[in-house]
Amino acid sequence: MTRRRTVLWTLLGPPLCGVLVACLVVAAWFVVGRPDLAEGETWFQIEFVGEAHYTGAPDQPIFFLAIGNDERASGPGGQRADSIHIIGVNPALGAATVIGIPRDTAVPIPGSGTDKINAALQYGGLDLQVQTVSDLVGVDIQYALNTNFDGFIAMVDEMGGVDVNVPARMLDSDAGSDFQPGVQRLTGDQALRFTRDRKSFPSGDVARSENQGLFLISALSTLRAQLTGSTGVLTLIGVLSRHAEIKGMSVVDLYRLGRMGLFIDPANVRNVVIPTGGGSGSNLAPGPGAAELFADFADDGVLQTH
Fold this sequence. Notes:
Largest sheet: 7 strands, mixed
Strand content: 15-25%
CATH topology of the domain at 44-159 and 202-297: Aminopeptidase
Number of helices: 7
Order of helices and strands: EEEEEEHEHEEEEHHHEHEEEH
CATH class of the domain at 44-159 and 202-297: Alpha Beta
CATH architecture of the domain at 44-159 and 202-297: 3-Layer(aba) Sandwich
């Protein structure tokens, strides 16, 4: 039986998503990958989850969920959403917002009580993860992308790496990171280490979530440099159709979304992590200001007051 490997960016790491890095080509994190796959194998999944297909309406924001899960051969089994980013794209403004939700954030999960938000993926798959994030943020998520460790590494390597401005010295033996600050091109393996690092920073998972968002935007910059115009969009669709499981999306949907993603200037993409407060153990409660942040985001996909 073919092993299913799934992807939302997010694109974007654990793998960031991965979507992460694929995140922003379908409005922020379509990371293209053309690895040497076994026949029928899928590296990532893009799923339509909203009530209506994308129509290209310039006055309507589009919302994506980018998940990077912790599935790998040496892992604990199952899938937890260790990188969670909701991406809002406003076509009229040519702008987008990436909101990171730390994996240890404690929230209500439908049917399972209150738990860490990353557990929703293990309890009920991508559908439950989408519902949980949608309930928290207050938006209808139209598309979801999900990838694992192997898929993230392969996608970044297929891109030839991603140029990232590493914000500070990073040294985390658990994540395997060892980076000096400054701009550098990261391979897939290095990108995974970068997006998993949380012990190099006092704020832990909060800083990791912020760096995952940084990686998503860096991936968008790399994609824009390599894939330009209609030819670039068609190239992207070709790769996706060969190596991704795509549910509920037509070729026209893919073309419109890919074109929109590639024409968004990374300078117009905000990267924000939700405010968090105290909690028991490693659980973090959504902090003061989270509700206002979500309301600012929900109306048009971009932040005006945050």
